[in-house]
Amino acid sequence: MIAADDLVALVRNYNPKTNEKLIRAAYDYGRAMHEGQFRHSGEPYFSHPVAVAAILTEQQLDDATIITALLHDTIEDTKSTYSEVAKRFGSEVAMLVDGVTKLTNLQLSSSETKQAENFRKLFMAMSKDLRVILVKLADRLHNMRTIKAMKPEKQVQKARETMDIYAPLAGRMGMQWMREELEDLAFRVLNPEGRASIIRRFITLQKETGDVIHRITGDMRHELEKAGIDAEVFGRAKKPYSIWRKMQEKEIGFSRLSDIYGFRIITRSKADCYATLGVIHQRWRAIPGRFKDYISEPKSNGYRSIHTTVSGRDGKRVEVQIRTRQMHDVAETGVAAHWSYRDGVRSENPFAVDPAKWVASLTEQFDGEDDHDEFLEAVKLEMYPDKVFCFTPKGDVVKLPRGATPLDFAYAIHTRIGSGCVGAKVDGIRVPLWTRLKNGQSVDIVTAEGQSPQATWLDIATTGKAKSAIRRALREAGRERFAQLGRELARAAFENVGKKASDKVLEMAARNLRIPDAQELLARLGSAEMSAREAVAAVYPDLAPEPTEFVEIKSAVIGLEHGQAFDRAPCCQPLPGERIVGIVQRGKGVVVHSIDCGALEGFEDQPTRWLDLHWADGNHPPVYSVSLEMTIGNDAGVLGRICTLIGEQKANISDLNFVDRKPDFYKLLLDIDLSDANHLHAVMSALEAESDVASVVRRRDPALSMQAAAAE
């Protein structure tokens, strides 16, 4: 356990004017309160708060935060009280300790409804004082460093919670070093074999190529010295989890992964950053599309740096980050840089973000999100992805999550612009609304009078702000129309069980389903956001009928006019349970496509032909054909077992063709009749589990997509 003298020395290293007496008093008080308590490892419990305080000294935090770390478990786990802590160490420390105690009691990995509620409490705590989160993150980091002493099932629970919540939160606050360490410690628990595999490959690579980091670092220093630039150069191999994640995202093996080494260049000035960039690009070939300038367009947590990827020795790609010392301090400690001390005074770092403004920007989009699912979605969208920077035609910068679309861009400018969006131009070229935006692109939104949000937009938008605005607009625009339809659906459903859909009954159903009122309940019924069976079950659970089986295919799609026929598009073969859209074909009825079908791009400029459709609720008969491409081993009895497996899942093979025959494998194209998307999943899961099935994928034929578009 770290002694009081050593802890004080750690603080005095960056804050000579520290209140040494108060820190020692907190140390002694915390040790006395935890006397007789032990950790799972057998160590005195107080060794944990001291270690948390030591972690926070690495970020050069103020005395109040260090003292809070020493006392953060006293109110919860000892006879100490809020009033006693306030009396001994001041109201500021007492408030921080109380805040950490309340955070410790939050179950952030519980059920989704409870999780959403607790995330709200988390953001409330952050809005009061961000140092509460800094102590909690350091607390989690030390617990993860010593997790081996816990029971295996507890290790997995804590590691999953760390990977899902605390690591992304540390990253969102700009504390990248902490995010990487938390991820790696959790990875060690959740996938020890995967982590060990990465490390073994690193060792093998080092034996084959030697010390690449040392050689490239030397080359960079030499080039900078020649150019007269005073800078420090550091190199490192990326963390095992970072490499594993890239391998999974890109679906490639370790040998094909290129940028597994990272280099950081710390300069004296911003001008030197750009001069260094020139030196690096002159000496090594830059990789197109891998340049990011976070100095001119910093992240919302204050992060500033230039990122570029170049082709180094032996054609190996290496990532290079270039920044000044002050930028580096913010990059290391993120929002915590606001409290950092140097030479006894609060650090005047011009790049440090005001925590109050940062929390306000983080929580702004959550206002009005009453629905737990929508709130949780908005939180995770904000916490997890990185950002892209795009420009308006006037040159203003719009920050969006990675993967955002022109629709998100439109809503980021103004809700009115988003709601009236009919198209977009990216760098002067007309693009579909589902196009993924990239850094530095210029986006021009095309609007039209009378345009209103479409239900299909929910699958196109990625930001919480856009999704919330679309949902609100859809609910408001169709409320009356859907409510009328919903009343008819409710009347029929309740009469079916011998009851009446009176106003009182509908109010009771709404209350039991936690819906604001009966009118909203009817609107949701009419818009198919919920089924009439759910409404009946909310009042008469014992009388609710089982889902209707739709024997007649003509009644399977809702949203068509009376007597209007439909066909499933051959290019995407949509199934019940999947998001769909209809395209009106003159004289041929309606063709139903999956929302992500490539053929839809050909109809983007014909909005009058689009229909918002959805599959009817209930059981569908297994009559919807889907094509599967399979590769199976060429051995006796394999094809028979495959057919048996499909039959066991109550699916019928309507066609089978051999695409390719080789001595050791066959490629097949099977048409299978299914009832819905869940049925497809069950069939594919059964096939994938068969050892003689090398691969099975759902076939989406691009040629048929183009034919469908050309036919128009």
From TrEMBL:
Keyword vocabulary terms for this entry: Kinase, Transferase
Keyword Hydrolase set for record: no
Catalytic activity entry: GTP + ATP = guanosine 3'-diphosphate 5'-triphosphate + AMP
An MF annotation (GO) of this entry: GTP diphosphokinase activity
GO cellular component, as recorded: plasma membrane
EC number(s) reported in the record: 2.7.6.5
Pfam families: ACT_4 (PF13291), HD_4 (PF13328), RelA_AH_RIS (PF19296), RelA_SpoT (PF04607), TGS (PF02824)
Ranges of residues in domain TGS: 382-447
Every HD domain range: 45-144
GO biological process, any: response to starvation
Domain ACT per the UniProt entry, residue ranges: 627-702
Origin superkingdom: Bacteria
SMART domains linked: HDc, RelA_SpoT
Family to which the UniProt record says this protein belongs: Belongs to the relA/spoT family.
PANTHER family: BIFUNCTIONAL (P)PPGPP SYNTHASE_HYDROLASE SPOT, GUANOSINE-3',5'-BIS DIPHOSPHATE 3'-PYROPHOSPHOHYDROLASE
Function: In eubacteria ppGpp (guanosine 3'-diphosphate 5'-diphosphate) is a mediator of the stringent response that coordinates a variety of cellular activities in response to changes in nutritional abundance.
Name of the protein in its database record: GTP pyrophosphokinase rsh
